[in-house]
Amino acid sequence: MKKWQCIVCGFEYDEAEGMPDEGIEPGTKWEDIPDDWTCPDCGAPKDDFEMMEVD
Amino acid sequence: MSDTRITLAEARAYDRKRWLWPMGFGIIILVAAATVAGWLSGITVLMFAGPIMVYGIVPLLDFMIGKDSTNPPERVLDVLEDDPFYRYSTYIYVLVQLVLFIAVCVVVGTQPLTIWQWLGFVSTIGMLSGISINTAHELGHKNTAVESWLAKIALAPVAYGHFYVEHNFGHHKRVATPEDPASARLGESFWRFLPRTVIGSARSAWHIEKRRLARKGRPTWSLHNEVLQSWGMTAVLWIGLMAAFGVALLPFLIIQAVLGASLLEAVNYCEHYGLKRQKHDNGRYERCRPEHSWNNDHIVTNIFLFHLQRHSDHHAHPTRRYQSLRHFDEAPELPTGYAGMIVLAYMPWLWYRVMDHRVLAHYDGDIRLANLDPRNRDRLLAQYPPPAT
């Protein structure tokens, strides 16, 4: 499981947690999130996310 | 892939303003030339070229020249984005601004000036410093080392380096919500917005860095703190200039920074006035959409501010370069460019007359959907009664 971070505002998407509120089940891989999905905080597109280093 | 050279030429052909973009730095050279001419010739009024241009000439030219609402088609955006021509205009801008700033500091620090000449220099440089925050904004969203550094350099003279942190990680996250210090509320005058945004943004930038450094296990007070880094750059620049040209330069440095920051915040005031993202039941705000920013397509201000007024697309695609930003028909539109709007913002009674009914119309008469100033909430609800449901 990986984490992805919005380079604009810092929002983190954690594949393990998903976003159940938005209908994204826990365990949903980044590549399985629809291309038109955007950052829930700032609205930046998926392209503006980068994979985070695992601490 | 087909021949990319044809694609580049084609992409360029879609940008009707292509050859106007270098006027971004061209205008500041003209302003500085007018100021110096005014100083040397004794025609002191020319030394106020900065404010005359921002508050007079640009709004007038917007009115005379009008709008460009054309959009580059989706398929050429990537090519347009990679065209270095556009980046270089912003790089040159930062260098020109820095040279002009230092040159004027030399004059102010070493030459005998009348009070009016001094005021001319400080007001003109103040305007240029304010506009350079916008250039830093364009650069500060880009993910390259050159552009990040140029953004920080551009913010050093005006002592607004924390903007770089706060804008990306604060404003873009909380835009058009009551929690955002940089989103103006309906019924909030510019003069009350100004201290709220200046203090709130500095505080926010500090907290953002503190949290980020804590996550990395570093102390807040460290060289890795980007807020301290940028304020440190200002300190080095200002102290260096005072060491070379005298401590008497200090009032000049402070006043131009205050004028510059106020100009930027006046633009901020216009960008989201009264607009609000609604809150979902789960406590999250709805996503930022085109309807949450005020836009304008007047050509002159757009050239001057690197398409900042295509603000909805900027929030939808914050890393997108200025030349590729698009106009949206569904986004709310200001009656004139930001340059003209800030003149109104300084006169709250006039601003409310022009803007409040536009916010109301945007929310189909339901004022409760707007970002209401808590102090004026009751008055606004009485003045614009919400529709019965």
TrEMBL record, chain A:
Residue ranges of the region described as Disordered: 18-37
Domain Rubredoxin-like: from-to ranges: 1-52
Example GO molecular function: electron transfer activity
InterPro entries for the chain: Rubredoxin, Rubredoxin-like_dom, Rubredoxin_dom, Rubredoxin_ET, Rubredoxin_Fe_BS
UniProt cofactor note: Binds 1 Fe(3+) ion per subunit.
Cofactor: Fe(3+)
Gene3D superfamilies for this protein: 2.20.28.10
Pathway: Hydrocarbon metabolism; alkane degradation
GO biological process: alkane catabolic process
Keywords: Electron transport, Iron, Metal-binding, Transport
Top-level taxonomic group: Bacteria
Residue sites binding Fe cation per the record: C6, C9, C39, C42
Family label: Belongs to the rubredoxin family.
Function: Involved in the hydrocarbon hydroxylating system, which transfers electrons from NADH to rubredoxin reductase and then through rubredoxin to alkane 1 monooxygenase.
Protein name: Rubredoxin
Biological source species: Salinisphaera hydrothermalis (strain C41B8)
From TrEMBL, chain B:
Database matches in InterPro entries: AlkB/XylM, FA_desaturase_dom
Domain Fatty acid desaturase: 117-341
Family: Belongs to the fatty acid desaturase type 1 family. AlkB subfamily.
Membrane protein topology class: Multi-pass membrane protein
Protein name (record): Alkane 1-monooxygenase
Localization annotation: Cell inner membrane
Keyword Cytoplasm among UniProt keywords: no
Main subcellular location of this protein, as a coarse class: membrane
Domain of life: Bacteria
Molecular function GO labels: metal ion binding; monooxygenase activity
